[in-house]
Amino acid sequence: MRAVDAFRAAYGRDPEGAWRAPGRVNLIGEHTDYNDGYVLPFAVPWGVTAAVARRDDDTLRLLSLQDATAGSDGEDAGPRPMTITEHDQAGGWSRYVVGVFWALRQAGHHVGGADLVIDGDVPKGAGLSSSAALEVAVAMALNDLYGLGLAKIDLALIGQKAENDFVGMPCGIMDQAASALSEEGHVLFMDCRSLTTRNVPLDLPAEGLQILIIDTGVHHELADGQYARRRRDCESAAERLGVKALRDVTDLAEALSRLDGDERKRVQHVVTENHRVQALIGLLRAGAVREIGALLNASHLSLRDQYEVSCAELDVAVEAAVRGGARGARMTGGGFGGSAIALVADDRADRVREEVTKAYDQHGWAPPRFLPATPSPGARRLL
Ligand code: GLA
Asked: Less packed terminus of the chain by CB within 10 Å, N or C?
């Protein structure tokens, strides 16, 4: 295993173990997690492997096999490990690792130092939650090595805390939970208030179907600021409506009649999106996976028009995919770039790809990347 070989080369000893956590796509339930709502993500085949060993002191040494900045010029010495004090703390990937140590210690756990090698293969910038994968892989490693006895959902919460309070991204729990708790061949239904989860089978090949990830290749800079703004819109709307969270809105028409402007639109999205998650679960339970496409389309329109987190590249991908014969398509993840997903019959997949590529070409955009989304295993120890 590459991470283990690199560990030996970098630190001159064996790691105590290696852990792997995946990225995710979200089938439906977008921008519902921080409204105490429902989500339905699943793990993708790509993720982060962490080879780790404890240290006797408090030092943290890190090495990422993808970290271009760590290579020494000219020589083929490859990336070199760095202590965190040496490492760029301003914006680098190491914040997610350090944040997990920090979050565990904040929660009162005894966690000493460690040597780590990180090897990730989540396509960069595709919005497939490489940061959650990194957090969960490291949290799981430290949980095992330091005998913390934490459950998988606790590891997800530690990852979210690292991201919220150390990195400064006010994300919900979906990405980390999907990484920690997914199972191969299943989607993860999660109630983000009670934090209860259920793995629901999704056997696409049996139906002659596949989910195609369309990576737009763009990430619009406004994403993070807009994410925080959406959260604030939702919180202020909930306050105005006198409910704890938008999850608690039971009479949508009555709620909308008391709101206007952005708050009104945000509530319309969140409340209907929660219903779409439950409707989709109902269809899966009924064995009607072929019928879920309309819900995907409706989710996209709601994210585009009510929640206003889509962008031209996502809209064009979704519209072209449907034109090419997809049964349904939507943006997935936070928005403003990243990826869309399309539910496609196997014998239509080529046409869908062609139609989307053609549409991108007509807009003068670089071709998107297509990736097959197979519901994959969640976080686990490899050795
Ligand atoms: C990002 C966040 C998640 C979730 C989605 C939108 O991926 O990290 O917590 O809010 O956006 O559904």
From this structure: C
